[in-house]
């Protein structure tokens, strides 16, 4: 555990998003429990036609869009988010994110419940 640390996003490894069925979607873990934090801050990048399909998990999350625009399907609703918009999604609420720009970037802050598993749902995001 550290008292603090300083880094740069460009120094953080970019991995593919681990939700089954994701396409052109990448994640970087910036602040984690390994740093002594009770929450995680992650940066997502979705390239053109990028998608994180409908899924659920036990952690809560707040998504803050910093570049581009997207559709967020949450529960049975569809929202259009753009740079500066954010959404809170509680635990066990189904959701998906679809990039609608050349490149979508957003930060996602989550808590750490005992179960961090992700369940991909066999449901399409309503693209109205």
From TrEMBL:
Molecular function in Gene Ontology: metal ion binding
Keywords for this protein: Metal-binding
Pfam families: Cupin_2
Record's keyword annotation contains DNA-binding: no
Domain Cupin type-2: 44-109
Domain of life: Archaea
Protein name: Cupin type-2 domain-containing protein
Organism: Saccharolobus shibatae
């Amino acid at each position: 555990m550290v008292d603090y640390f300083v880094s740069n996003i460009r120094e953080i490894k970019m991995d593919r998003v681990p939700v089954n069925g994701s396409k052109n979607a990448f994640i970087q873990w910036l602040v984690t429990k390994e740093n002594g934090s009770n929450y995680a801050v992650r940066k997502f990048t979705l390239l053109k036609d990028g998608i994180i399909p409908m899924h659920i998990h036990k952690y809560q999350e707040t998504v803050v869009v910093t570049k581009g625009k997207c559709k967020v399907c949450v529960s049975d609703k569809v929202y259009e988010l753009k740079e500066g918009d954010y959404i809170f999604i509680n635990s066990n609420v189904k959701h998906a994110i679809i990039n609608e720009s050349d490149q979508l970037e957003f930060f996602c802050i989550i808590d750490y419940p005992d179960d961090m598993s992700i369940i991909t749902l066999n449901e399409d995001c309503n693209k109205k």
